[in-house]
Specification:
Helix content: 25-40%
Strand content: 15-25%
Largest sheet: 6 strands, antiparallel
Protein name: Adenosine deaminase
Shape: elongated
Radius of gyration: 19 Å
Number of helices: 6
Structural class: alpha+beta
CATH class of the largest domain: Mainly Alpha
InterPro entries: DUF655, NA-bd_OB-fold
Distance between the termini: 20 Å
């Protein structure tokens, strides 16, 4: 969740996916000159970052840290966006668990996606971008939400026949968007930022 600071600044937070106490392996500097580094995932926008950490801090995977604006950073000394391929194997294997936790923690936001998703073109609906959702499931979701908006993932699976694990479907889509930045439609990754820039 992004917090708004007392002076109105939007504070962006990220979850640590991997913590490398001895710095990045491709950092050519001698060991004593490297600072602890790692990878993190933005909690709102699902953007990936390569981060450098304060040497005096010991962090664990799953810790939440402030990444933007720079003035709000306490543990992070530097944060740069990276693509999925740049992540360490540890960060890649942690990613799905972290995304699943974030989706669970912000359930209402993703349930609202099912409630509010709109057509993109005459033939393509936002719901069809979700893995495993074809015409039949999409129509089931649209018919049910006309009656009454969904309030939880559980209610979604109870009311829409054939829709199992609506939360896992969202997680799968987010991972897909992170792995393949050339996807034509980004539904979740970078969304918040796009809306702020419009």
């Amino acid at each position: 969740m992004s917090e708004v600071d007392s002076d109105g600044t939007d504070v962006r937070r990220a979850v640590v996916l991997d913590y490398l106490a001895h710095g990045l392996s491709d950092d050519g500097r001698p060991q004593y000159a490297k600072s602890p580094a790692g990878y993190a995932l933005d909690t709102t926008d699902f953007r990936l970052y390569e981060v450098a950490f304060d040497e005096d801090e010991r962090l664990t995977i799953g810790s939440e840290v402030a990444i933007e604006p720079a003035a709000e950073r306490d543990i992070v000394t530097e944060a740069n966006r990276v693509e999925y391929d740049a992540l360490s194997s540890g960060a890649q294997s942690e990613l799905e668990y972290v995304v699943a936790d974030l989706v669970e923690e912000d359930e209402q936001r993703f349930v609202d996606f099912y409630n509010d998703a709109q057509p993109i073109t005459l033939r393509l609906h936002q719901l069809n971008l979700l893995p495993g959702i074809g015409k039949k499931l999409r129509n089931g979701i649209l018919d049910e939400r006309k009656r009454k908006p969904f309030e939880s993932f559980e209610e979604l699976s109870e009311r829409v026949s054939g829709l199992h694990d609506p939360d896992e479907i969202i997680v799968e889509r987010i991972i897909q968007e992170l792995r393949d930045e050339d996807l034509k439609y980004q539904t979740f990754v970078g969304r918040h930022e796009q809306e702020q820039n419009h």
